[in-house]
Amino acid sequence: MLAARAQAIKRLKQLHPFVEEGVLLSKLMAYCSKEAHSCVEKSAMICFVKLRILEPDDKCSLRGPTLRRAMEEDEAMGLIPFFVSTTLGTTSCCSFDALAEIGPICRLFSNVWLHVDAAYAGNAFILPEMKHFLNGIEYADSFNTNPNKWLLVNFDCSTMWVRDRLKLTSALVVDPLYLQHGYSHSTIDYRHWGVPLSRRFRSLKLWFVIRSYGISGLQDYIRHHCQLAKHFEALVRKDNRFLVCNEVKLGLVCFRLKGTDKLNEKLLSNINASGKLHMVPANVNDRYTIRFCPTAQNATVEDVEYAWSVITEFATDLIELQMLEKEQENADEVFELADRKKKEALAYKRSFFVRMVSDPKIYNPKIAKSLSGGRRHTSHVTDDDDDIEAPESSAVAVNTPVFRHLDTLVRLPAKKEGSSSRRSSCSPSPDNSNSKSPSRSPVLGRRKPPSPN
Prior knowledge:
Largest sheet: 6 strands, mixed
Oligomer: single chain
Shape: globular
């Protein structure tokens, strides 16, 4: 990315000689897939350039039309595409970007550097049957792979090929007097090929591995691991509790339990905590997946079957525990529902009792019917009230208190405003007499003894 940035700034300075480099730098835009390695994002941070992360297709592959649409949109906004990073064998699920589609699109834009990251899968390209994954590599400006990932070389060892080495070294040359020597024109000085000033002799250990195994030995080793991955994929597909989440092309199998992401997180956590296996998760199509990859040098089919037995054992225990927890949750929900209904019924009864004491119309519909005109309470009256006929002379003052004692209705007179109003406000006694007081006592509920006179 540093080399691509230097190349782009140099070209833009020729077109706009009076524009500051900082302004030109703010216009540069790099591109990669969401499935690209995090080092691409870190490189953009180091280089102070913009990075647009593009969405891949349902197979986690970056397609040409997606890239072209993004680059055209940015150009229309005044930005300058200068770098595209593609991946052959992504970290999360070993997917392959459509390099044959992306390469010609990069050629449509001037001076766009196309980089191909094949850190893991690039080791498998020593197999003739894997060469088809390299379709479109002729468009690449740089290509790298890591022999320490699949070629039996100890960490760390990374190899890089570059189309034009002068474009790379011109971006990184710093040549003070104390670093100059008389052989600078006859040898390759690798301090100009990267960020560090010096480096370890990594090529020596790669040479020893190639001399020890030979090309055919390394090819057999990689083929064997691909066969182990295929065997593990077959085991996963036989169990209907699991799903395979990627196309198994090389040695990586992404799988998950049918269920939530939290269920799969718990499964992986339990397996890794046991010490029997170690696997790493990934996010594939926005789902939490578990990555299984044979990495032991002498791994066998029996080892894969043992690993699968460990996985299924933990999965069975976890599913049973989940079922028990679900049953407990259902029981708790039933208990909570019954308890809530009980509390609601008790609250309703208490509320009804309070309203019954404060408003007699709730339990004596005859009173509600007898209150004609004036202001009436809005308490609930049953439908049976319509069948009860109120007495004709039941006119009662609006605020006259009404009480019920057993089967007798007694209405107290309103406040005295005059003799005529008092007579009109008093309701007739139950025995239809014209006496001023009722014949029954409102307290004892019995007739008064007759007067001796």
